[in-house]
Every structure is written in structure tokens, then in C-alpha cells.
Amino acid sequence: MLHCNKNHLVVLTVALLTASVAYAGDSPSEINQRIGNGDPVAGRDKSALCQGCHGEDGNSVAPTFPKLAGQWSDYIQKQVREFQNGARYNETMSDVAASVDNFKDLFDIAAYFASQKQMEGTPIAASEEQNLYLEGEKLFTQGNERTGAFRCVKCHGEYGKGQPLNNNLFPVIGGQHKEYLVKQLTDFKTEERENDRSGMMLRITTRLTDHDIEALATYLSREPPALVPAVASAPMPAPTLPLAPVVISESYKILMEDRPVLIEGTNFGIGAAKLKKTANVQLDGVVEFATTQPDRYWK
Ligand code: HEC
Ligand code: HEC
């Protein structure tokens, strides 16, 4: 009974602490899950020192100080403990970590930052960033088959906002500072930072060039297009698919002959030579399939 009330209290306090719910990741149940076993209200006072660098609400101003707002408390605790025991080292942070000398304080401090409205990126700064953003988005969501770069989204969730279920040691990285992200990815790659379990991030970053890192950090530190009106309202580029199946099959000829694809339904508008959108969707499926079969079908 007492337990039940306490849980209610936590949810309520969290609702009060977070000014507005802007992200899917900020629903009360998700915030509650992020908080873990600490007390966010006690953590607010206990984290006064931390707030000096990481920001009052966990959104630091200096781009070399990571944002902690809406980060998983388990991940925050792990990092602080590792700064303490030397598994992760940073001149500034390692000294400060030593000042947190008991678990209860660490749980509460971590819970406080975890309870905050999740970190958000800044708008795309200059037009030249748009291409970098798109490159980064592609790498993040699809990886790169040629270099063997693995898809980040698998572990870090959509937009790097973390996985809602049971993956609380995969940090939230979407909305983080660009400079900080570049530094961490580079640190993993050069083995300056080695506290990732089984070298997960080392294996991933060795497949990334400096340019890839720049692109990924741009993507992760900028607002998703849906939140950037200028980008969101730009017209979608016209599909580059050719008009008729005959032309399409030129590159995928062997594929089509080998495995004929039946596109059902009426795919042309009345009196029009242009394929309907619904047909494009199906053709996209064909194209996607073909690109996964480079050895067999690709010329
Ligand atoms: C003087 C500035 C400063 C203060 C005060 C400070 N930090 Fe940090 N913190 C840093 C810097 C700089 C880093 C980034 C280290 C790096 O580049 O690897 C960092 C990193 C971290 C990280 C890792 C974040 C991540 O995304 O991996 C955590 C967690 C953290 N700090 C928690 C705390 C807590 C808790 C306190 C208070 C007890 C605190 N910090 C106080 C400067 C500070
Ligand atoms: C197999 C799972 C996995 C994949 C795939 C993965 N990561 Fe990670 N990543 C992790 C884990 C686990 C950590 C936390 C390491 C630790 O405990 O310190 C991490 C940490 C990070 C950090 C440091 C976060 C911080 O706050 O300091 C960044 C940045 C990052 N990953 C970016 C990426 C990018 C970019 C990709 C894709 C190129 C990627 N990750 C792919 C598992 C993964």
C-alpha cells in the first residue's frame, strides 16, 4: 500500500518537474522508467554542483559538457561509477565524480536528470548542414554495407532517443551537443574511451571515417525535420522512378525475368501514362529487394 502511494507520488512530481511533454519519450510512464530507483526531488538539491556544468535542467550550455536531460538513470550511474574507478577518464569529470561518495546520492542525482524533459537538438544551422544531416540520417538508420558500418538505430532507437524497453544502458544520444558527440565517437575509435561493454562502440567506430562521424553528429544534434518547419514544409522530391515497368526492369531485368513481380490493382490513372503513388510504393519494394541482392542481380 505504502509502496503504491510512493509510486504515484513519483509520477506526480515528475509531471510537475517537466514543463511540457513534447516528445514521445516524455510520457509519464517513460519518464518513470528512466528514473529507476532514485528520488528525483531529493536529487535536485544533491545535484547543485553537477548543474553548474551540466545545466540546471540537465541541458548544458557549453558544447563539451554533455546534456544529461532525459538520459537513462542507469546509464548516468554507470558513467559516474566508471569515472570514479578509472574505467572512463576525463580530467574535469573524474575529479568531480569522486565527490559523489554514496550510492543513494548517485541514484537520486541520476533520477533527477533522468526526470527532466528529454534533450533536444538545435535547428539546422546552415544550408550546407542539410546534406550532412541527410548523410548522417542514412548512416544512422541504414548503416553502410560497403564499409560494414552497423545501423545505430538498432541500439540507440529512433532519432537516438533511446529504446523504451529494457535497453536502459544504451544512452540517449539524439539531441546531444555536436562537439560532444564528435569527441565521444573519436574517443571510442582511438580507444581513448573503453568503457563500452564488449567493445561494442569500438567495433562500430572503426568502420567510420571522420566525415561519417561529422555527419552522424550533425544528424543527432539537430532537430528532426518534423520539428523544423523550413525543412518539413519543403516539397518532397519527385520520385525518380521511371514511368513504365519496361524501363524500370532495365536495371532489374534479370531480377524481373527470374522472379516476375506482379503489381496488382489499377496502377495507372485514367488516361494517364504516369504510375499512381500506390504503384510506386510497390515498385519501391522491388527496388529495395533488388538492392539487397547485389551479387545475384545487380549489373
Ligand atoms: C566542471 C564541470 C563538470 C561538473 C561540475 C560535472 N561534470 Fe559531469 N562531465 C563534465 C565533462 C567535461 C564531461 C565529458 C567528459 C568526456 O568528454 O568524456 C562530463 C561527463 C559526465 C557524464 C557522462 C555523460 C554521457 O553522456 O556519457 C555524466 C553521467 C556526468 N558527467 C555526471 C555528472 C554528475 C552526476 C555531476 C555532479 C556530481 C557532474 N557530472 C559534474 C563536466 C562536469
Ligand atoms: C550494438 C549496439 C550499439 C550500436 C549498433 C551502436 N551503439 Fe553507440 N553505444 C552503445 C552502448 C552500449 C553505449 C554505451 C557505452 C557505455 O556504457 O559507456 C554506446 C555509446 C554511444 C555514444 C556515447 C554516448 C554518450 O552520451 O557519451 C555515442 C555518441 C554513440 N554510442 C553513438 C553511436 C553511433 C553514431 C552509432 C552508429 C554508427 C552507434 N552508437 C551504434 C551501443 C551501440
Characterization of this structure:
The chain has three domains: 2-114, Cytochrome Bc1 Complex, Chain D, domain 2 (Orthogonal Bundle); 127-232, Cytochrome c-like domain (Cytochrome Bc1 Complex, Chain D, domain 2, Orthogonal Bundle), CATH 1.10.760; 245-297, no CATH class. The chain contains 16 helices and no strands. It has helices at residues 2-17, 28-35, 40-46, 48-54, 73-85, 91-97, 103-114, 127-142, 153-156, 178-189, 200-205, 210-221, 229-232, 245-258, 277-291, 294-297. α1 (2-17) packs across α2 and α5 (73-85) packs across α7 (103-114). It is globular, with a radius of gyration of 23 Å. Bound molecules: heme C (HEC) (2 copies). One heme C binds at residues 66, 78, 149-150, 152, 154-156, 169-171, 173, 181, 184-185, 195-197, 200-201, 204, 216.
Write the layout of secondary structure elements.
Elements (H helix, E strand, L loop, with lengths): L1 H16 L10 H8 L4 H7 L1 H7 L18 H13 L5 H7 L5 H12 L12 H16 L10 H4 L21 H12 L10 H6 L4 H12 L7 H4 L12 H14 L18 H15 L2 H4 L2
Helix pairs in contact: 1-2, 3-7, 5-6, 5-7, 8-12, 10-12
The structure holds heme C (2 copies).
